[in-house]
């Protein structure tokens, strides 16, 4: 019985940490490394490798997928990221990614604009977008 309870707890814990997929428009042929994605979402990279200006799309702070993305990709907590952007905004050196409320909105925006990049829960991915990295 103890083993069964441990297995159940492990299964539940692993499902709470769903994979995050970074997505772009299907026509985007740029190359992407994890470091490039991090630079895009911290405002340090302003264009794709194809030369087009990049428009990062994020989800609302505090959502599970955003927390997972911040942790796995940016290596920052939500509080650290908020402080980071506050400093850049105050000094006029940056603008945070546009925030939307859910996976469906991210997919809709990215499928409509080849210059966007965003992240969603991996189980929300559709054929309207292209997955470039999964974390």
From TrEMBL:
Q: What are the boundaries of the signal sequence?
A: 1-18
Q: Which UniProt keywords apply?
A: Signal
Protein name, please?
Phosphate ABC transporter substrate-binding protein
Q: Which organism is it from?
A: Pseudoalteromonas aurantia
């Amino acid at each position: 019985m103890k083993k069964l309870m441990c297995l159940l707890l492990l299964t539940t814990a692993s499902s709470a940490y769903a994979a995050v997929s970074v997505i772009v428009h299907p026509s985007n042929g740029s190359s992407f490394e994890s470091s490039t994605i991090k630079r895009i979402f911290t405002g340090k990279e302003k264009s794709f490798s194809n030369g087009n200006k990049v428009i990062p799309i994020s989800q609302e702070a505090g959502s599970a997928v955003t927390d997972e993305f911040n942790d796995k990709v940016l290596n920052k907590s939500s509080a650290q990221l908020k402080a980071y952007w506050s400093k850049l905004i105050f000094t006029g050196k940056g603008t945070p990614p546009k925030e939307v409320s859910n996976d469906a909105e991210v997919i809709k925006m990215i499928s409509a604009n080849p210059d966007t990049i965003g992240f969603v829960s991996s189980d929300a991915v559709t054929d309207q977008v292209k997955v470039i990295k999964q974390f």
